[in-house]
Every structure is written in structure tokens, then in C-alpha cells.
Amino acid sequence: MSAISNILGGFSVRKFSINRNTGVPRPARRFSVGEPGINEASSKVHRQFRAAHEGHLPHAGLDATRSSTGVVWCTERAGEHGFFEEPEKWANLGQGAPEVEDDIEGCFPRPKTIDISLNSREYGPTAGIKPLREAVAHLYNEMHRKGQPSQYTWENVAIVPGGRAGLIRIAAVLNNAYVGFFIPDYTAYNEMLSLFKNFAAIPVPLSEEDGYHIHPDKIAEEIARGTSVILTSNPRNPTGRVVKNPELAEIQDICRERATLVSDEFYSGYNYTSDCDGTTISAAENVIDVDEDDVLIIDGLTKRFRLPGWRVAWIIGPKEFIKAIGSCGSYLDGGTNVPFQEAAIPMLEPELVKKEMIALQHHFREKRDYVVSRLRDMGFHIKLVPDSTFYLWLDLEGLPNAISDGLNFFQACLEEKVIVVPGIFFDLNPARRRDLFDSPCHHFVRFSYGPKLEVLKMGCDGIERVVTK
Predict the structure, then answer these.
(1) Does residue 92 sit in helix, strand or coil?
(2) pTM reported for the whole predicted model
């Protein structure tokens, strides 16, 4: 194998550049390894994608004129097909949100009204109210640190207005550092890693052949070359896989005193590796000293408590970090809505959470099994069934050429009132520094089985029509 083949590895050869004024393909540009196929060269959605993202244009070094996450871009395209006028007729399998209704057997009903105390009319602390911080610390001690001498306290917790706000706060307090992130991963990391100049973002490609698994030796390699912050979702978005113990503990041992581990655990409750017994996955279990181990954990009500609209999340870590993270909220986001913080406290009682996670896991595993069965019957090759989250990283190779890449498959699904997210959005490209035409994520889409079962059935019916056509 030639040197260039070794470098490119599993990257596809589909690569071309579009003249944004004429829509005509340009000659192959830097890093190109092949000419465009007719399906891409004539594809309206490919032209739209490249016109919206500076990193996919001929002058990739220019500042971005527009910035949006993949889900927003996909929703905008769906809007052009009537999604906003009649959303009830669509199967939105692109939005990264769980069903929010109260009809999951065994789950507690969510509040429909909230008492607003006099105190909550005032500005709240930017690190969150103390009772909620105490409730979060107690939950993690009960679920992940029983019998360990070092315990979290309220001072180890900052409450933040949603996961993105939490990520931005963490980014704001990072030192001059190389920040290693894995691809594919959560699309919103793109913006976080692009905004701040106090660190350099270093992409770490994972191998498709072994399901994009994060091996401990991969972490060791990154630290050996000077990376001092590791950022990752776990359980992993978009692949639906999880790194659990003993591998997770090994990764934390490698990072200890050498690198800060930022663990995005929003899908920690969607864990199917322990037969839906309510077990959640968290790096908190392997922390030795809560104030010495450089581990920052981010989670919240959004996913596993099925309350994305509340925008209540938390960051857990050493007191020194948490103090800085809490303070920077004063100039970044102003802090989390106080009445919703107060309403969240009773939900975090450990026994209640355990029962909730058991019900949640059984329900979402059933939905996972349904969509996997339907898609396999259509001819999709699903190598690895997700063992966590509510996402399926759906491989399009083997489909007819016209729909075998994520953007064209997405476009075809829109015609059937189905929304998925093209895999290219998860090949994170902060500040558009890389050329993505040869991305190994081109032949994937992310399929969310977060919505209700009737929506999933409608979505699978639509995809079946796409494949049949």
C-alpha cells in the first residue's frame, strides 16, 4: 500500500469542489483522491451543504459566514419541504431528543405546574442554587461512589442552563492546551471548539472497522504527543456505543495527573449493557479523589429525565474547577432558570432515579429492537447494534448509488417527510480547518429512535419507500 493510501485509510474517494456561484463542479482540489460521481455532481443538497459551510468551499481559510449545527441545518431543509407547517405529518428522526410524554410505564409523571417562590424572582447564583447542587452530589455518591472515602459535595457541582452552555463554560476555563476530540462525535462540539482561542483542537479519527471504539491505547497515544485535555461523549453520540469498565477505568488511569478528561454523559441512563437493570455509566465511579482527579462530568435533565425544554444541566468536578466554571457564567449565560432548578430537586432522589432508569431502559431497548429489525428487513447492514443512547449510526453502503451517501439519502427522505442527519456533520471540523470531501462519514446517517413508537413506524415506512423507489 502506498504512503498516501496508508494516510487516507478507510476514507472514500468521493471528492469534489463546487463553484458557489455557478453550481458547477471544479477540478479536484487539495487532498482530492478522485473525481465526483454523477449523483454528487448533480445533487442540489450537496450544493446547499457546501454553500452553507465555509470549510467545504474552495476558499476554506476564510471566516465562516454562517454557523449552525447539523440538526439545525437539516431542520431548515425540512422546512423548505413543509415541515414547519405540518410537523405532525413528519417523522423527525433527526432531533436528538427523547419522547417527553408521561405514558412510559414505570416512569414518574413530570410536573405540569411549578410553584415560583419569592426568592426565585431574584437573580440566582451563576453556579446554581445550593439545594440542587447538594441533590446532584448526593445522587452521584449514592449511584457511583458508595463505600469510597472521597465523596462529592455541593461545591463539586455547578448547575448550567443546558449542555451546550456547560460545554462553553468548560471551554472558557481551559488553559493553553491541545484538546483532543474524537470523530465522529456530537455536532455541537464543533462550535465550542471553534469559538475559543485559548486551546488548539486536535481531531482523533476512530476506526469504522471496530465500531469507532475508543481504546485506551488511543488515549495514551494522544497524551504522549502532548494532548492535555480529552473531550468525548460517553455513551457515544452518534454511534450508540459506550466505553464501560474496566476500559473506562483504564482510560481514567492513563489520564490521571497527565490530562483533564471531559466526559459528556448525557446518555448515561440509556444503557442496555446490563440487561436494563437501571445501571448508569459514569466516570464518577473511577475517580479516586473528587478534588484531585481532573475529571469533569456533564449531564442533566435533558436526556435521561426527558426534559430538554427545561435547560437544566450540571457539571461535576474538582472544587477548584467548579468555582471557575460557576464564576464564568456571570459573563457567558447568566445562570440557570431558578424556578426550574427548585422543581428539579425532588426528581433526583436516588431510589426514584433508579426506578426511572429501569423503566427508561426497557422502553427504549424495545424501540431500538423495533427499528433495527425494520431496517434489516429493508436490506440495511447493521454491524453493531447500539448498546446505549437512542441513536443508530446507519451505514448506507450497499444501497443504490443514488442514495448511498448521507446527503442524498437525507434529501430522498425529505421527499417522504422523514428527517435524518447526514453523517458528515459528525466529522467534526472546528473552524473549518480540514477538508471533508473524503470524509469516512459520508456514507452514514444518524437515525434517532428517541421519538414515540408511532413516529418511528411512520419514519421506517418512509425510509422503506425511499429504498423501494
Answers:
(1) strand
(2) 0.85
CA triple 464-468-469, angle to 5 deg: 120
CA torsion 250-253-259-265 (nearest 10°) is 50
Q: Distance between CA atoms of 386 and 404, rounded to whole angstroms?
A: 21
DSSP for 418-463, please give it. Answer: EE-EEGGGGS--GGG-S--TT-TTTTEEEEE--S-HHHHHHHHHHH
404 pLDDT exceeds 80? yes
At 461, the amino acid letter reads: D
Q: Is the pLDDT of residue 11 over 50?
A: no
Consecutive H or E run containing 196: none
User: Which of these, 199, 283, 284, 270, lies nearest to 237 by C-alpha position?
Assistant: 270
Question: Which grid coordinates are listed for 234?
Answer: 460517553
Beta strands at 421-422 and 444-448: parallel, antiparallel or unpaired: antiparallel
Torsion (CA) 182, 133, 171, 328 in degrees, nearest 10:
170
Q: What is the pLDDT of residues 327-363, one digit of tens each?
A: 999 999 999 999 999 999 999 999 999 999 999 999 9
Give the DSSP H or E segment for 115: none
